[in-house]
Amino acid sequence: MKAIKFHKTGGPEVMQYEDITLDAPGPGEVRLRHTAIGVNYLDTYYRSGAYPLPLPSGLGSEAAGVVEAVGEGVTTLKVGDRVAYGAGPIGSYSQARNMPANRLSKLPDTISDETAAAMMLKGMTVRYLLRETYKVKAGETILWHAVAGGVGLIAVQWAKHLGVRVIGTTSSPEKAALAKSMGCDEVINYTSENVAERVRELTDGKGVPVVYDGVGQATLNASLDSLSPFGLLVNFGSASGPVTGFDTGILAAKGSLYLTRPGLNTYVDSDEALQANVADLFDVVGSGAVRIEVNQTYPLADAVKAHQDLEGRKTTGSTILLP
């Protein structure tokens, strides 16, 4: 079997395509042959060392595949089942692996392996952000940064399905057009427009009750300045680098604001919470309310190129690797 490993942290070039040996699945595990693997910006944090891992390490948190063997005590899955995951042990950049059975979800016939691999982590993230971190309500206006990315395009559609008005930010006219085609009401080009000023214009000076920000340091001030009093900044990612040196007094000065830094694993820690999240995701995708855009596909052996394009902002929507 082959897998992507890295023995030191750094740029995309530290990833290596290596031979691996796969043992029989242990108690509570299944052996999973991957058919499609999701690529997420989160993966670059682990690879670069921003999120430390014991080395050497595999990479990746999201994939779809077929169960090839079951370990002792596994009763919920059988050989031949199509499954997918977006939360669990790191190591999805591989042709096959052993996985805890309780972290897997059976795929319905309405969702292909490629779609599942492209949507699990991103879609589960959107679900907890919109339905738990801040429960959006019909008629509200929200701001979502990097709206043309994989998470952003899912979020736009899901928010519109819930009756929410979405203002998004992007870096190019092409990405703006893509976001609008998915239902984004207003798109701000942050390279040429003042985000906070435009948000105020689009909300009659009120600002928005919540900003979803996966960019981090570069968008911090614009996010805070776009909020209405008592508004919530949800900093769920750090694509531009983590927020550092933050003075909490700013929250009071700008309107008694709130700031949170959530993570998916906390929201799906229990098996029940995981499957409830996934059930909602399968429902909105299976019904057609949310369409998953797989806009880039690479062979697993070309993971370096996939990361170069992702970090170079050359991608839109979701990216997958094929084993």
UniProtKB/TrEMBL annotation:
Gene assigned in the entry: qorA_3
User: Its domain of life?
Assistant: Bacteria
Q: Which InterPro entries match?
A: ADH-like_C, ADH-like_N, ER, GroES-like_sf, NAD(P)-bd_dom_sf, QOR-like
What enzyme class is recorded for this protein?
oxidoreductase
**Enzyme Commission identifier(s):** 1.6.5.5
Residue ranges the record marks as coiled coil: none
Q: Name one Pfam family in it.
A: ADH_zinc_N
Q: Read off the Gene3D superfamilies from this record.
A: Medium-chain alcohol dehydrogenases, catalytic domain (3.90.180.10), NAD(P)-binding Rossmann-like Domain (3.40.50.720)
Name of the protein in question: Quinone oxidoreductase 1
What's in the keyword line of the UniProt record? Answer: NADP, Oxidoreductase
Q: Taking every annotated instance into account, which residue ranges of this chain make up the domain Enoyl reductase (ER)? A: 10-321
